[in-house]
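Chain and backbone:
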Amino acid sequence: MGELLAIFALVLFSSNIIITKIASSRVNMNLGFLISVGMNILFGSILLVTQLLFFSQGHIEWNTKGFLLFLLGGVFSTYLGRWFFFETIDKLGPTRASAFQTSNPLFTTIIAWLFLGEVLHWIDVSAIVLILFGLFLVSYVPQVTGKREAAAGQEQMATKNQLKQVVSIKWLIQSGILLAFLSSMSYALGNIVRGVAIQSWQEPILGGVLGAFAGFILHTVTNKHTRHFFLELKKADSLGITLFAISGCITITAQILVIASMHYIPISIANLITLSTPVLVTPASYFLFKNQEKVTAVTFAGIVLVLSGISLVIL
């Protein structure tokens, strides 16, 4: 059950990456983020009302620990993780942004092992190794591109030796690489917190809505575009707005599925499956964007390994 929920979340997260790439070319990313997170709350609330009316008989037992943890999970995932990730997609493209998430499952597994005492079966460990190696192959080509960009940056710095260190840091930020790793770490911490929360309070839909609410409040406070939101909304491209709205519906649904899956399977396994987005994003990006990101046979070999690892976990 948990594996199937995680796979459905994987499909939704992968679709969101492609949609975000298209939407970001039409609408400012800060405005798009507000639209997306706002839709998180709206669509998540609709799902919550549906649950209360038809499945929970209008009653949810209160759990303070779960409430606080779901809010904290939203800070890490909905606010920090997604904001960093949106910026990464805009700077690196969908395939490279997705590929940099390879470090996320590793962070999550280590944190779950050190602080939660989560012990995995040797089959699960083998699957993790297989999937991580496959994701490395998927990211191999983008990393080569990144090295070329780094070489170009170093060549420019040769004439400014006294500013070498400063320029290097600036390049890391501007290139999107630092943002990609910050996104990965934020998502890992968010998933760990949500995994702990769902064990004490089995309310994945409410948990997803609480996280979205926390992310929305923080981004509203820190986003300089908030005060001009409705003015910018009127001027923005209608298709871009629609795509970011769809993105919001997709991401809250995916987050709820991930949270629910963590009730049935280890946090590290659920996280690993849902973040294997390159296996779906790479082929889609190849055809939709005419291989702009230089996908090769090595990339597709990595996809096969990731799918094999996921199959090993399920079987």
In short: The chain has one domain: 2-314.
